[in-house]
């Protein structure tokens, strides 16, 4: 198993009263885009694109993402989970939409997250996150427990972390921490031969894994890549992202 890598890039038109936000996410398992428009503090339109995904049903999850339309903008990315049932959404499209919603309220037009989670050795790894190229978070992780540094020491990434982060950290640090948590959890998949699956598991945890849908959510063989460098991630999204700044001009 090699290092898991993810990059998220977010571009806003920079017009808080009425504007557009575009966001792209690419990692070893996924490549998604989300575009939203907002007017007077309300999300008026949201859609997505599925470019690389683990199961054949994943692109269908763009439709339920439209349930976010009409929600009030929030500086808290996790707020999208109060607008819709995350179990019936694509986890990564919904996460990306949440990041875009929070970005709509910020004056900064460009934001890039880079995450790395090396292969675990005896259950341990060191997960890290950069914000716009600068180190922001680095955790020593043993199983599901963050062993340090403070204030993360003792936090369980699988149980109760979202509530803890939102109640303890600033909204921006909580955003980064929950993004790193997601990556730390799913990075375990790099130790598995996922293409041995025929279809998604019936866990009811996301759109493709709903019991009624999983048997026809066929495994997209070859969709897991071994990314050598974060610099290659989101490289094909750049022209699409740049168009955002001209969308409302």
If you had to describe this structure to a student in words, what would you say it looks like?
The protein is an alpha+beta fold. It has one domain (4-192). Helix content is 18%, strand content 27%. It has 5 helices and 8 strands, in the order ββββααββββααα. The chain has helices at 62-65, 91-103, 161-168, 171-186, 238-242; strands spanning 4-12, 18-27, 31-39, 42-52, 110-117, 124-131, 134-142, 145-148. The protein is globular and about 50 Å long. The protein starts with a strand and ends in a 7-residue tail after the last helix. The mean pLDDT is 94.
Distance between the termini: 46 Å
Q: Which band does the percent of strand residues land in?
A: 25-35%
Q: Give the radius of gyration.
A: 17 Å
The SSE string, one letter per element, is EEEEHHEEEEHHH
Main sheet makeup = 8 strands, antiparallel
**Number of beta-strand segments:** 8
Q: Quickly count the helices.
A: 5
Unreliable stretches covering 5 or more consecutive residues? none
In short:
The protein is 18% helix and 27% strand. The protein has helices spanning 62-65, 91-103, 161-168, 171-186, 238-242, and strands spanning 4-12, 18-27, 31-39, 42-52, 110-117, 124-131, 134-142, 145-148.
């Amino acid at each position: 198993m090699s290092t898991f890598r993810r990059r998220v890039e977010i571009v806003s038109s920079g017009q808080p009263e009425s504007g557009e936000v575009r966001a792209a996410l690419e990692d070893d398992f996924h490549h998604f885009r989300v575009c939203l428009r907002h007017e007077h503090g309300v999300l008026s339109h949201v859609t997505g694109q599925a470019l690389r995904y683990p199961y054949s049903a994943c692109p269908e999850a763009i439709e339920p993402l439209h349930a976010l339309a009409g929600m009030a903008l929030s500086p808290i990315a996790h707020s999208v989970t109060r607008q819709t049932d995350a179990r019936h959404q694509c986890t990564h499209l919904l996460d990306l939409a949440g990041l875009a919603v929070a970005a709509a309220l910020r004056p900064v037009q460009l934001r890039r997250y880079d995450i790395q989670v090396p292969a675990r050795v005896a259950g341990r790894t060191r997960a890290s996150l950069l914000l716009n190229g600068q180190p922001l978070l680095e955790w020593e992780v043993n199983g599901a427990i963050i062993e340090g540094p403070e204030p993360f020491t003792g936090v369980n990434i699988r149980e109760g972390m979202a509530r803890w982060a939102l109640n303890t950290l600033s909204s921006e640090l909580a955003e980064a921490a929950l993004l790193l948590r997601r990556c730390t959890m799913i990075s375990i998949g790099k130790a598995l031969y996922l293409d041995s699956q025929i279809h998604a598991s019936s866990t009811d945890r996301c759109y493709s894994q709903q019991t009624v849908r999983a048997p026809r959510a066929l495994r997209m063989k070859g969709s897991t890549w071994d990314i050598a460098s974060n610099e290659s991630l989101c490289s094909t999204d750049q022209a699409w992202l740049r168009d955002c700044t001209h969308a409302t001009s």
